[in-house]
Write a structure and sequence with these properties.
- This protein has 132 residues and is mostly helical.
- It has helices at 2-17, 20-34, 39-56, 66-76, 86-95, 114-130, and strands at residues 83-84, 112-113.
- The longest helix is centred in the middle third of the chain and has 18 residues, at 39-56.
- It has one domain (1-132).
- The protein is 66% helix and 3% strand.
Length: 132
């Protein structure tokens, strides 16, 4: 039993260290968002762009630009208040593969504006890609 626990712990640590689960969740979210005709080729192209960006030092490939992020925010802000709740914010990050269910985020009680939402989505996306 001990060997299995040790292997499971090693595997979990490896996945966390290399942020593999975040990458896989993000790739799955991108597939569901864009719904390409050829999903395997689409995933290969994403990973190839990531490899090229890493080798050449160019900007990492972002698959949701600010207009996509703003559109998502507007869907969440159905009453046009200009902000969304912290719960909506965390769920959106989880849906995009940018936050885990057990991640602790700090709620300042002020609500989340579109600018803050875009900034956080872009920051978290950059963190995921630069880990590779």
């Amino acid at each position: 039993m001990e060997a299995n626990s040790s292997r499971e712990l090693e595997a979990r640590n490896y996945l966390e260290k290399h942020r593999i689960m975040e990458l896989l969740t993000y790739l799955a979210s991108a597939l569901l968002f864009f719904r390409p005709e050829k999903p395997r080729e689409y995933l290969i192209s994403i990973l190839e762009r990531l490899r090229i960006a890493k080798v050449s030092g160019v900007a990492f490939p972002f698959f949701m630009d600010n207009s996509n992020i703003a559109a998502m925010f507007q869907m969440l802000d159905s009453s046009n208040k200009g902000s969304i709740s912290f719960i909506q914010y965390k769920e959106a990050l989880k849906t995009l593969g940018l936050c885990t269910a057990d991640e602790v985020l700090k709620d300042d009680g002020l609500g989340i504006t579109c600018e803050k939402f875009m900034r956080e989505v872009n920051k978290r996306t950059q963190e995921i890609w630069s880990a590779f």
